[in-house]
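For reproducibility, we list the full input for the iron/sulfur cluster complex.
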Amino acid sequence: MDADTIRQYLEFYQDLHIETLYRRTSVADAASPAVKASVVAAPPAPVIAASESKIAAAESKIAAAEPKMELPPLAPPDDSLIKIMQDIGDCHRCRLSEARDKIVFGVGDEKAPLVFVGEGPGADEDAQGIPFVGRAGQLLTQMIEGTSKKEGIPLLRKDVYICNVVKCRPPGNRTPEADEMETCGQFLYRQLSAIRPKAICALGGTAARAVTGHKEGVTKMRGKWFKWNDIPVMVTYHPSYLLRPYNENAKREAWEDLKKVLHFVYD
Ligand code: SF4
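The corresponding predicted structure, in tokenized form, follows.
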């Protein structure tokens, strides 16, 4: 395998927030009890060559297996982001508190007409306490500001609000469990109620399912409008997904989705 291919693999795993890679063991090694005990988990084979239709089918299966989340009623009318932050406090309501460094509450204009919702903090976000500051975050900023500029909409990242479904980093950046999403989701719903934006943009399948309650995979939901308590929700891909080298179509689609939501909110 040449150096460029290895670099692409490493970037791919980084985009998936996988920080620890294990060397694949031989069959003979795997049969040894000593080695077996030392191997925590073998990595899945790289899926760089997988077609988008296969990815879509896998996502649909995962979505179908997950329980549909119940959407709670709106928070009290006098709720505010400060109150929500105070209520979160040094939260230990779910197991995601165990390995986190910082709670990542959200960032941006508390009166923003547009809110972006992602899945959960990654390593950079956990260290800084700010959502979407790593590579995926930089891409999101480029998407917001670049698309707005092209479309003649004067908009910067600071003018929108950005947060996640869960406020603490899942260990190894795994997908949050349903119970973690339900526990932390109450704060997301209160944030959305307090901001009351004109539209919400759900980034990726986890955010889409949390905000809409629908079970489909993101490839089926993207580009379509849903509702969260009467607020229109546009679903699109998570920027991490767009960073993978074989996702040119998805990039184009995400830009189309973003144009739709920007024109809906700012025209
Ligand atoms: S993820 Fe949410 S509910 Fe869980 S500990 Fe962090 S702030 Fe609390």
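Residues 88, 91-94, 96-97, 103, 166-168, 180, 183-184 surround iron/sulfur cluster (CB under 6 Å). The first helix runs from residue 3 to 15. Both points were considered when choosing residues for closer inspection.
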